[in-house]
């Protein structure tokens, strides 16, 4: 079996978006297993105050993301509705068919971090689902299923138990690489 890098992400993380775009630019998508987590839940488990709730960190994070995006030629707009509750979006990743997951990831990330769309609004989410050819009524029913709720909690708890404290985080060979700027290190580990 081929080794793959686990990519722990949340759509509300601008750094997850930037890492995702770098993965695509490097043509490395097939070397990753995308693992959805609820970043707010992870922060709660670790007793971490998110940068979004610290004015000084937030200012730096905006500037940092713009600098990274520009250097890597990644289209990026700081979303005016940051942060949003990504609970339904992350559960959504778990309920859709595997063959539609890549399209869903791209559509959610692009809407939020490229097109400045408030993807927490149902009418905007329905547009994304239509683009991905996902039936919105089935999606809405499925994301409220207790099994799916528990699965996202379990993935988030699993991340916490692996000492993950933020997104994106890459894990391969039981080694943890935190941050979009550690993508190359994770790829090096994959190729060792």
Structural class, judged by helices and strands?
alpha+beta
Number of strands: 4
Q: How much β-strand is present in the residues?
A: 5-15%
Unreliable runs, pLDDT <50, ≥5 residues? none
Mean pLDDT value:
94
Largest sheet: number of strands, sense, barrel closure = 4 strands, mixed
Q: Quick recap of the structure?
A:
This protein has 192 residues and is of the alpha+beta class. 55% of the residues lie in helices and 9% in strands. It has a four-stranded mixed β-sheet with strand order 2-1-3-4, sandwiched between helices.
Structural summary, described in words:
With 192 residues, this protein is an alpha+beta fold. It has one domain: Glutaredoxin (3-Layer(aba) Sandwich), CATH 3.40.30.10. The chain has helices at 14-25, 39-46, 55-71, 87-95, 98-114, 122-131, 136-143, 146-161, 183-191; strands at 5-9, 32-36, 169-172, 175-178. A 4-stranded mixed beta sheet has the order 2-1-3-4, sandwiched between helices. The longest helix has 17 residues, at 55-71.
Short descriptors:
192 residues, alpha+beta, Glutaredoxin, 9 helices
Summarize the SSE layout with pairings.
Elements: E1 5-9, H1 14-25, E2 32-36, H2 39-46, H3 55-71, H4 87-95, H5 98-114, H6 122-131, H7 136-143, H8 146-161, E3 169-172, E4 175-178, H9 183-191
Parallel strand pairs: 1-2
Antiparallel strand pairs: 1-3, 3-4
Helix pairs in contact: 2-8, 4-7, 4-8, 5-6
């Amino acid at each position: 079996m081929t080794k793959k890098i686990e990519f722990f992400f949340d759509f509300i993380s601008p750094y997850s978006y930037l890492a995702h775009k770098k993965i695509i630019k490097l043509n490395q998508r097939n070397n990753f297993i995308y693992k959805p987590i609820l970043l707010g839940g992870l922060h709660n488990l670790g007793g971490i105050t998110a940068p979004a709730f610290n004015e000084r960190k937030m200012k730096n994070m905006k500037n940092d993301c713009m600098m990274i995006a520009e250097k890597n030629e990644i289209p990026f707009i700081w979303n005016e509705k940051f942060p949003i509750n990504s609970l339904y979006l992350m559960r959504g990743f778990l309920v859709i068919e595997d063959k539609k997951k890549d399209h869903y990831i791209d559509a959610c990330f692009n809407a939020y971090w490229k097109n400045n769309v408030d993807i927490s609004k149902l009418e905007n989410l329905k547009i994304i689902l239509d683009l991905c050819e996902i039936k919105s009524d089935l999606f809405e029913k499925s994301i409220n299923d207790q099994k799916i709720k528990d699965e996202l909690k379990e993935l988030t708890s699993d991340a916490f138990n692996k000492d993950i404290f933020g997104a994106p985080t890459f894990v391969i060979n039981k080694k943890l690489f935190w941050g979009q700027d550690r993508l190359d290190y994770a790829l090096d580990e994959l190729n060792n």
